[in-house]
Each structure stands twice: as C-alpha cells, then as structure tokens.
Design brief:
TIM Barrel, alpha/beta, 3-stranded antiparallel beta sheet
C-alpha cells in the first residue's frame, strides 16, 4: 500500500535565483516554505556579484529575510577574478561557487570556462540566459583559476549550452545587450561564421557536451557540475565521466517536454525542455537513485509582464513548493522512494557541505493531500529603485498538487 505520509530531512537546492530588491523580499522567505533549508545562490544580479565583499553583503540581506536557511554564496566570474580572490572567497567561508558567463567558440578552437570558489563555481555560455551579458569569451586564460580550484577542492558549475546560431535569438536572450559590429557580422567580436554550427535551443546542450568532456580531461581532479540537464545525451555523458562529475536536475524538467513550453511562456526556460525520451532519461536516472544526480531547481522568477510578452524571459518559478512538486512528480513515475536521496542527500555529499550551526537535523513531513497551486505570488513596488508592484506566476499555477507539507 502506498505511503500517505512521509518524513525526510529538509531539502537542499543547489541552484536557485533569489533576485534583488522587492522581488528578493518576496522570494527569499518562500525558500523554507518549499521545504528547503540550504540554498546555493546564483550571482547573476545587476550588477553581478564579482567579489567576496559583494557576496557577503548579499548574504547578509538574504539571512535577514530567512535566518532559518543556509545560503551558499557564489561569485560571477569576470576578467577581474584572480586566483588570490578565489582563495580569499574560500577563506571567507561563504562562497559556494563562481558563476562564469562565457561565449563558447567551436571546439575546433578549444577554450574552457574557468570558475572557482568554495563548494562550487558556475559557468554560463554568454547570451544563453538571463543577465549573462557580463560574461567572457575564452576559457583558457582562466586555467590558473581552475588550477587553484582543483587545489582547493572547489567545484566548477557549468551552464551547458552553446549559444544559438541566430544572432537575433542571442540578442533577445541578453535582453538587447549584445554588442554587434556596425555591419552586423559579429557578436562581441566573434564572427557569426564561427557561431554557425547548426545550433538551436533544442540541441544547444548536446553541442556543449564535448566541452564538458574536454574540461574533465584537462582537470580530472576538479569537481564539475553540469547544471540543469535536459537531455539523454547529457545524462549519458555525466555517467560516463566518473565520480568527479555530477549533474543537477530541476523540478520542471522532470515534468515538461517541448510541447509544454511551445506557446506557454511560463514553461519557457533555458535550457528548454526537450523530447519525451529526454524526459524519460532524467526520470530514469532519478528512479535509479544515481548519487551524482541531484536537485538544483534553477527556480528563476520574473514578473508576469516579462513572461507574457513577445520575447518572454527564460525562467520557471518553483521555490515556494519545491518538495510538494517533487513528491507529486516522482510519485507519478514510481520513484517517491528516491525523493530523499535526490533532494536532501546527494548534493550535500558531492559538494561536501554542511548547514550552519542549528540548521542540521531538521525534517519536513509531507502528506498525500491535494491542493491548488496559487495563481500568482505578488511583490510590492520598490520606490528606491523605481520598480512597480507585480506578480510572479508559479509552475503549475492553478493546478492540483498531490502532496502538501504539513510539518517542518
């Protein structure tokens, strides 16, 4: 007989966007509501977090809003980042990673993305996602940073996509911040002819995988996390690379396929959901209980006005209901018994992190009972920065979820 109530440790989300200003004040208290007590925070704000001091300041804001959550802070890799700053970040004890935004050139001219701090470091190919315009275009100049990361036991996080061939798509993803040449034959100095590799949303992740393999070959002792995998090819690649390479999987990619976001802006994210066989591969590896695949929601809130538009921003908002969503989805394909490992244990084990004093040992109880997901989560106007009040439409808005948090 299926269980109608389950108790497990609070979850760890190894990829979350908490934003800033009024949006931050709405989102951050929702982290614990979703059953999460450890959050690995992305630094792609405006301006991005590029120093230990900035990360500490941001962390203080987050802890004031949610003192019961452990926040692992990250840095955004920029040309100013040095091996010494990486060491300083780790010594500060607050950096969970460094976000790296980079434009990937064809593998025939190999370049590799450097990132660095504490549990991990994050890499975005430039132009593939929100606020990735501050990135850099070449990996190899950052090899000294990778070397320090390897020595310090840090983790490199990769947004595994190659930018689209279509310069207009790239510009849209950067929210019109690409710098094109006067005759429109290049992006940020990279000729379009070098970008044309038959790349689009649907194969951008698979095209990236040789870069992942090359990075692993060049730095075999460096822990690497391929973020928010969406394809069977990505699952197979991570499995093949051994114990120093892991992978995060989002809530929504365990449920969505291409048909669900084509024409539905609130399901549009980067990387996009792929084909049914890709979703099956994600579900299968979770059902297998593979310890190098764990939760990273990539929960990315945007005002509904930024989603319900001709050029919808990429991002799905799952923060307030992470464990209810996961329990419902895993239950649907017979993997409810894998929830604890996937959401609560495997990520912390790979990163080697612990929650701050007083945060460990907490549990959350879920009960099999249906309720409707709210249609929107509202945030107030911010007179200081001049933003209007608005709302964020969550994943599955208005839909029934089969599990509810009743304690924790």
């Amino acid at each position: 007989m299926p269980a109608n109530e389950i108790t497990l440790p609070t979850a760890s989300d190894f990829h979350i966007h908490l934003r800033q200003d009024a949006m931050m004040r709405m989102v951050v208290p929702r982290v614990a509501e979703g059953g999460v007590s450890l959050a690995y925070v992305m630094p792609n704000l405006r301006p991005p977090i590029t120093s230990t001091e900035q990360a500490l300041t941001y962390k203080a804001h987050l802890e004031k809003l949610a003192p019961n959550v452990t926040f692992l802070m990250t840095l955004f890799l920029s040309p100013d980042l040095t091996p010494d700053e990486v060491r300083r970040a780790k010594q500060a004890g607050i950096v969970g990673g460094i976000i790296f935004m980079a434009t990937l050139r064809p593998l025939a001219r190999p370049h590799h993305v450097p990132l660095s701090p504490f549990p991990g470091v994050k890499s975005y190919p430039r132009g593939v996602t929100t606020n990735s315009d501050s990135g850099i275009e070449s990996y190899e100049i950052y090899y000294p940073v990778f070397k320090v990361m390897e020595e310090e036991g840090l983790v490199l996080n990769l947004h595994g996509e190659i930018p689209s061939d279509d310069e207009k798509v790239c510009k849209s993803n950067l929210h019109e911040t690409w710098q094109t040449s006067p005759n429109c034959d290049s992006i940020s100095g990279i000729p379009f002819s070098l970008l044309h590799q038959d790349v689009c949303f649907m194969n951008a992740e698979e095209k990236f995988l040789p870069h992942l393999a090359q990075l692993h070959a060049d730095f075999p002792k460096l822990k690497i996390v391929l973020e928010h995998a969406t394809s069977k090819a990505a699952v197979d690649m991570v499995k093949s690379l051994g114990d120093t390479v892991a992978c995060t999987i989002t809530v929504h990619h365990l449920e969505l396929i291409v048909d669900d976001w084509a024409g539905q802006a609130h399901h549009f994210c980067k990387p996009v959901a792929k084909y049914p066989h890709d979703r099956k591969a994600l579900r299968d590896v979770v059902a297998e209980g593979h310890s190098r695949f764990f939760l990273g929601t990539d929960s990315a809130p945007h005002p509904h006005t930024a989603k319900e538009t001709a050029h919808a921003h990429a991002g799905v908002f799952t923060t307030p209901l992470v464990l209810p969503y996961l329990a419902t989805i895993l239950d649907s394909f017979g993997a409810l018994d894998r929830l604890q490992g996937f959401a609560c244990e495997f990520g912390k084990r790979f990163y080697g992190v612990v929650e701050k004093d007083g945060h460990g040992g907490r549990t959350v109880t879920l009960k099999r009972t249906s309720f409707a997901v709210p249609q929107t989560y509202n945030f107030e106007a911010d007179v200081v920065v001049g933003t209007e009040a608005g709302g964020v439409v969550p994943f599955w808005a208005g839909k029934e979820v089969g599990w509810r948090i009743v304690k924790g």
